[in-house]
Amino acid sequence: MQDYLHSRGGDTGEVPVVNVTPSNRNAVEANRTPSPDSPDPNVGFKSPPKAETEIGRDVEESPLVKHHGETPVPPVKTTGSKPVTLTFQDLKYSVNIKNPNKQTTSDSKYVQREILRGMTGVCRPRELTAIMGASGAGKTTLLNILSCRVGGGGKNKLSGSILANAQPYDIAKFSKFAGYVMQNDILLETMTPREIFTFTASLRLNASPEERQKKVNRLIQDLKLERAADTQVGGTFSKGISGGERKRTSIGVELITDPNLIFLDEPTSGLDSFTAFILISLLKSMAVHGGKTIIFTIHQPSSDIFFLFDNLMILAKGKFIYQGPTRAAVPHFGTIGYQCPEYSNPADYFIEVAHSDKDDDKKFEIMYQAYDDNIAPQIEQEAKAVQNKEIVLAEKVNSFLTSMLLISKRSFLNFIRNPILFKGRIGQSIFITLLICILYFRISKDLDGTSLTNPSNIQIIYDINGAVFFYSISQFMSSAMSVVLTFPAERAVFLREYSANMYSVSAYYFGRSTTEVPFVVLFPALMSFISYYIVGFNDANAGKPFIFALILIFVSLAGNATGILVGSVFSDAKVATNVVPVILLPWMIFSGFYINSNSMPDWLGWIQYTSPFRYALESLMWNQYTDYELGTGIVEQYGYHLGLWGSFGLLAAVGLVARAAALFALKILVKKLE
Ligand SMILES: Nc1ncnc2c1ncn2[C@@H]1O[C@H](COP(=O)(O)OP(=O)(O)OP(=O)(O)O)[C@@H](O)[C@H]1O
Ligand SMILES: [Mg+2]
Question: Is the domain of 255 the same as that of 327?
Fold first, then answer.
């Protein structure tokens, strides 16, 4: 830690935290921070000298930071690395937006808005490439395009080429040699950083369990996550690890496979300047020691951080106004009349320069012109000259069954730790069971078994039917809502992991279901057995309570499947929660309880056949009123005619269809990504 502090002073100008060894001294010297008052005007746009680190070896010496004064962690065998040079040429991207100037009907409704306007660039291995620019300049869009997260589908247009070592790539290939740390940390709240790393390592690393463990420990040390490693990430329900620790965990997830190319969108946002400095130093060390190509967007770097960048790209309104060595940026802008004031942070100055006001067209014209004249030709030449070299692609290591088991294990932990999914449901079940037992206590004890039309019997029958209806609604709702509230957050993690090629949609879905289903079965089963005799439902034979429980279990399963379906379609829990009533209310009203099945208008009556409540209610009623003093006339009065097993079978079928639809929805979701 002292070394970090010492190196921040800039008295030596050496690259902080990178250990200077005879083999990399050249690189470190090359990155010396120039004195602000004597910028070297002769610095051109050639690449700085490279560290003489040996790339492509089987055993990495130390891909990450070597801790000063500490015993270095023993080297971990990695899949080996081969440097990647990323180039993009004449990248143009425009989106279709509503025409803001539409006045007459002859004006078109939509117009194309150019986001990127012909960008060519080169990002080299062993370098930190920082992309800077005002908010809305197109930085994230550029990263998303380079990482194949954004394509030219629909009315959005994308043109130009993106190459890694002169080879084109798609998202599937990208995930095998590169990692993308998005701006928002997408982590499962109930997991600890150690568990997250271990899970990722198990799915992505082709190594023995001991090696994986070593790698995880090493990553935790390198990312300085020792203190937070065993604390749950936390978030909505509980305070967990800090923002900086979350960010480092997100970065760790991408580093576990040792990718040769790493993208990071605003890795330092929300971090204090010192933590930000440590993070960028770590990336710098990875670039120099590990031969990696590291590209990130950044807002407001301190001057210490700024001078760690090797390659700087500055964007203004979707075009470059600068690209080249960081230390050459000040002289470049100086020559066109934008001289960075002495003692001020060049990063702040460049952002100010790149910011646009209404009447800035002239300013940008000068900058674009200077870029086109002095920088662009060299970059274009360099981009064309990149040679076709091999890219090391990570192999997919796990079978369907292994991924499913790993996902199932994680889901189990998530389930029992998530307060909504487990503790909440226990509390809810106890509360509802108590309420039912008190309210409907021995409900049928005064039933006079002689006549259906006896007024006191009618009242009791209404109560029994009300209890039966309440059972189905409560089971369906609590089962669906717990998933609707938690699944959208998990969905983001699923999408991130799926994009990283960690598992297939089916492995995820079935892995998750195998853990969830036992819980979904447990709650209604317990509730039914506890309350059946207390309420005083039909006990003509011992099979009745079991059939009662079985029906409620299937109601709960249908609720769970509907929850996953809604949660897969909507990414925001709030939206998903609002959508649930839109589906549930029609199902409830068409269940036959509020309006008799025979009284529904023909053209709308079909809705009842999609409703799990209708089948649940009918099967529960047949179960209640067969072998009963008053006979089954009551069931028939509701217009139910399917019989116990007929309605039960259709209830199971609705659940199955919802489950299949949820899997289908997830498949469509990932298709959209591709
Ligand atoms: N799909 C889209 N539809 C409409 N506008 C879009 C779309 N994608 C990006 N934009 C617009 O493109 C511009 C660039 O967006 P981008 O997210 O790349 O900016 P940025 O440089 O990353 O900004 P910030 O620093 O604030 O993150 C913005 O004005 C944004 O509104
Ligand atoms: Mg952005």
Answer: yes
Average pLDDT, the chain: 84
* Nearest atom within ligand 1 for CA of residue 299: 25
Q: For a pocket test of ligand 1, which of 115, 265, 313 has the largest count of ligand atoms closer than 8 A to its C-beta?
A: 115
The Å distance, Cα 142 to ligand 1 centre, comes to: 9
Q: Is 153's C-beta closer than 6 angstroms to any atom of ligand 1?
A: no
Q: Which domain holds residue 302?
A: 125-145+166-375
Shared domain check, 487 and 367: no
Number of independent structural domains in the chain: 2
60 in any annotated domain: no
Instruction: For residues 584 and 582, give the distance between their C-alpha atoms in angstroms, rounded to a whole number.
Output: 6
Residues 549 and 472 in one domain: yes
Q: What is the 3-state secondary structure (H, E, C) of 548-589?
A: HHHHHHHHHHHHHHHHHHHHHHCCCHHHHHHHHHHHHHHHHH
Residue 573 pLDDT class (50, 70, 90 cuts): confident
Ligand with smallest separation from the Cα of 98: 1
Q: Distances from the Cα of 509 to the Cαs of 124, 488, 492, 503, in angstroms? A: 39, 14, 14, 10
CA–centroid distance, 116 to ligand 1, in Å, is 10
> Tens digits of per-residue pLDDT, 260-279?
999 999 999 878 888 889 88
Which ligand has the minimum distance to the alpha carbon of residue 113? 1
